[in-house]
Amino acid sequence: GGLRPRPGQEVSVKVLGALEDGGLVERDPRLTFVPGHGDVVQALELGVPTMQPGEVSFFLAAYPYAYGRPGSRHCACREPDVPPEAPLLFEVTLLEVRDGPDPQPLPSAARLRLGSQRRERGNFHFARGDFTAALRSYRLALRALDGPAIDSPRPEEEEELQEQRVKCLNNCAAAELKLGRAEEALAACEAALRISPDNGRALLRRGQLLAEQGRDAEAALVLRRALELDPASKVIHAELSRLAKRQSPPSSA
């Protein structure tokens, strides 16, 4: 009884998810999301846009479309964990379809919570090898962290916002590398370092990327700074050693 959801629209659904033995592992009377944003399992991302408001559907999801190879742990919850490689049966009722909301001002605590949820969702996609979906979730997490606020964050909240931004940018760089986009990965590293100049993870990855581009002098400077922060790192020592060998002229016979 109505039009199916269009791209960019927000949906609300009632969801029940069960294992093959009938054990209930998911129950949400009103789950709200925008299909395509990567905030829910792929079975819902793909299935809900085929539905009409008021429709009840059953989706039998093989594990790549549910919680993937590792499964899922529901902490502080009475519902059982989803075992590794578990297929799930979802009962889904499409309650409502509406135009996607414009970014709304949120309290700083809500921005942090939403950013963390989306970054964790990106980590889930990354772990199952869906790097495009992971990158989309990390970018949505950054959008939440950078979005309009209705309050001035307290000093500790501002510090956590910055930490979350750096984590998301480092994760963006990792996903870009998996997708073979070195320039985009380098840009993400540099954005992270503008926020946190001494972030060791971003320094190391930036040094590696500069070295791959043949910018050895710049790479050496960045890697030496990373080594000052983490003198015991075998990875940084190896990268600097590789650069030194490349720069040394070959010895004559």
From TrEMBL:
The keyword Coiled coil applies. The keyword Coiled coil applies. GO terms for biological process: negative regulation of apoptotic process. Residues 158-192 form a coiled coil. One of its GO terms (cellular component) is membrane. GO terms for molecular function: peptidyl-prolyl cis-trans isomerase activity; protein folding chaperone. Residues 8-98 form the PPIase FKBP-type domain. Its EC number is 5.2.1.8. It catalyses: [protein]-peptidylproline (omega=180) = [protein]-peptidylproline (omega=0). This is peptidylprolyl isomerase. It comes from Smithornis capensis.
